[in-house]
Amino acid sequence: MAPKFSLVLSVTRQAPELIVPARPTPRELKQLSDIDDQESFRFHIPVIFLYKNNSASSPPLLKEKDPVKVIKEAISEALVYYYPFAGRLIEGPNRKLMVDCNGEGILFLEAEANFKLEQLGGAIQPPCPYLEQLTYNVPGSEGILGCPLLLIQVTRLMCGGFTLAIRFNHTMCDASDLVQFMKTIEEMARGANTPSLFPVWQRKRLCARNPPQVTNVHLEYEEINNNSDTFITTNPNEMDHKSFYFGPKEVRVLKNQLPLHLRNCSTFELLAGCMWRCRTIALQLDPKDTVQFSCLVSARAKDYKMDIPSGYYGNAVAFPAVHSKVGALCNNPLGYAVALVKKAKAEMSEEHIRSAADLMEVKGRRPRHAIKGNYIVSDLSKVGFDRIDLGWGKPVFAGIAGAKSIFSFLNRCQKEDGETGTLIPIRLPRPSMKKFEEELKRMIQGSTEDLFDITETRKIACKL
Predict the structure, then answer these.
(1) For 319-350, how does the pLDDT look when each residue is reduced to its tens digit (9 = 90+)?
(2) Residue by residue, what is the 3-state secondary structure of 84-125?
(3) For 102-147, how does the pLDDT look when each residue is reduced to its tens digit (9 = 90+)?
(4) Could you give the residue numbers annotated as active site?
(5) Which of 31, 82, 344, 395 could cross-link with 322 by S-S, CB 3.0 to 4.6 Å?
(6) Which residues contact 280 (CB under 8 A, 6 or more apart)?
């Protein structure tokens, strides 16, 4: 059932414009790494930031200033250091991606809304029903080649607050890198002359070795062969899109269902296992079929000894995978799924990501992640979206705008009463969503429907 709002939201946009670096930048070609340059990352991701009118507590430099003007100028200054973002992607031999650093600029939209922040309630949270209004996909701008690498829309609200929506090309960076770029915009908005952390390109660090050596098994790139068809529709017209909140109570209840040796698992492992199991049950697949779970793991962690320098802003992630028979996943307790998620994470190593880069070179066609029977989960709750303060305070919500077909993202969320938890959006075929909700409620003993599904009730308002 769609959420009901009395508010008829309207956004008036000015004509799109290009923001270019504030000063001349090098004209050159820069190759992406082999981790950047895989089919799996050739898409755009929207991120939303929502800010209150906190002008009273803003730095003197920003008091009474227009956020649109401040942000535009700060972006222009930041692009002096991140000038590849102002370029365009082109393909070389074997579809090798590289950036033509031509300084054409990023796409920017200035907009006015006819509503106040308090009128939105929880509607800004994923899946935001007004996403297309707050991050307009300018026709012709959504391609991977020859198109702007970033699209930014700033929408003024009637209360003095504003929304900042960013659509970024995943081949250029991951979520951590986007936060790094946003921190530079933040510093420039506050009057800094240079970034506190200078960007580092050095994409060769994650390119294939010479000669390439595919030493690991990479289930994440191998399509599953089942006797029956486990392909799940990704047609948005046939999908339902909802978010579910997990607070301390829900985490505690789920952990109590695990055997003692698994209760030291991370919140990500617990919730990813829960979502994967409930999703698989909801899809009602053949018990003899095989399904896959993949998780995005950052190579920046010191444990992996990748020696990735501070300031590096290329994709530095892998998504190791595990398989399970449908029947085993659905009929075993939650601990079975959590143990498999832990196993997937444990597959990550320096050798795994270097082997993945080599695989891109060996395959030539630059394979994409598996689609059939796959479910991919990424934890973005700690990357720092919620800490971006452009001068009007921290955002009341910040995060990925929603799930994408077989992808779910963990977002940090704080309820109105101050409780902090995790918000997870998911897309499922409409007939499967109801069964998913029923199974999730069954696992959380004693919980009520409005505790979970913020799409229908909007009773959980986040204020990061």
Answers:
(1) 999 999 999 999 999 999 999 999 999 999 99
(2) HHHCEEEECHHHCEEEEECCCCEEEEEEEECCCHHHHHHHHC
(3) 999 999 999 999 888 777 765 566 777 777 788 899 999 999 999 9
(4) 170, 389
(5) 344
(6) 291, 326, 329, 330, 375
